[in-house]
Write a structure and sequence with these properties.
Helices cover 30% and strands 24% of the residues. By secondary structure, it is α+β, with helices and mostly antiparallel strands. Helix 4 links the parallel strand 5 and strand 6. Helix 3 packs across helix 4. The two termini are 26 Å apart.
Length: 179
């Protein structure tokens, strides 16, 4: 019996899960799912001296993303003031579509995503607002809808007093790649 690491994954062994989740087994699957759901990926300009993602080994560390539409942040304002939880969920959805857009641009295909170990959501909110997890559910649902079980993730959702360009929501994450 082969030994397994503490995390239950032996990177040197090809198992059924790895084969099922290889990009060759999914060619075009993720794009087809986006079309089925009627979702369009968003562009996210890199505004500053950074890269939108850095790949180290089989992990892609994705920089913070807000939703962009027509050259501007798609949702500018405060949760608990300007926006309801539902409005925040739409902003989080746009941020997720922007993050997936960057991943597709940088990787060539979303089919290379094996899993999403970590998502970090930031919500621009009044100090009295407490529904940060409900807002970030908008982003989580996009990953689950588009990627299926590959989109399951660990997550944090926190409140902020300010986000770039006055955006209501920003997300960043770590994505494990299939080669």
């Amino acid at each position: 019996m082969a030994s397994r690491s503490v995390l239950g994954h032996d990177p040197f062994m090809a198992d059924a899960h790895h084969i099922k989740n290889s990009p060759n087994a999914r060619t075009g699957e993720t794009r087809a799912k986006l079309a089925e759901l009627g979702l369009e990926l968003l562009d996210h300009p890199a505004v500053g001296s950074y890269k939108p993602l850095i790949i180290t080994g089989d992990l892609a560390f994705v920089s913070g993303h807000i939703g962009w539409r027509d050259g501007h942040a798609s949702a500018v304002g405060l949760l608990g003031g300007d926006f309801t939880v539902e409005d925040g969920q739409k902003a989080a959805r746009d941020a997720a579509l922007a993050m997936l857009g960057t991943l597709e641009n940088e990787l060539g295909t979303l089919d290379r995503i094996a899993s999403v170990p970590r998502l970090f959501g930031m919500v621009r909110a009044l100090p009295t607002f407490t529904q940060h997890p409900a807002v970030i559910n908008g982003a989580s649902q996009v990953f689950l809808d588009v990627l299926g079980e590959r989109g399951e993730h660990g997550r944090s959702a926190v409140g902020m007093t300010s986000l770039p360009f006055g955006a209501a929501v920003e997300i960043e994450g770590v994505v494990r790649l299939a080669w």
